[in-house]
Amino acid sequence: MTSPASLARPVADEGILATTLSQFHSAADAIGLEDRYRAYLTSWKTVFQTQFPVEMDDGSIKIFEGYRVLHDTARGPTKGGIRYSANVTLDDVRALSMLMTWKCAVVNIPFGGAKGGVIVDPSTLSARELQNLTRRFTTELEPIIGPDKDIPAPDMGTNAQTMAWMMDTYSMAHGYTIPGVVTGKPVAIGGSEGRAEATGRGILYVLQEHLRADGGLAGRTVSVQGFGNVGSVAARLIHEDGAKVTYISDVHTALHNPDGINVSAAYAHVGRGGTLREWAAETHGATEVDPAEVLTADVDILVPAAVESVLTADNARQVRARLIIEGANGPTTEEADAIFEERGLTVIPDILANAGGVTVSYFEWVQARQYLQWTEARVNEELQRLISTAYRAVAARAVQMGPTCTQREAANIIGIERVVEALELRGYYP
Ligand code: NAD
Question: Which residues of the chain have a pLDDT value below 70?
Answer without folding.
Answer: 1-13
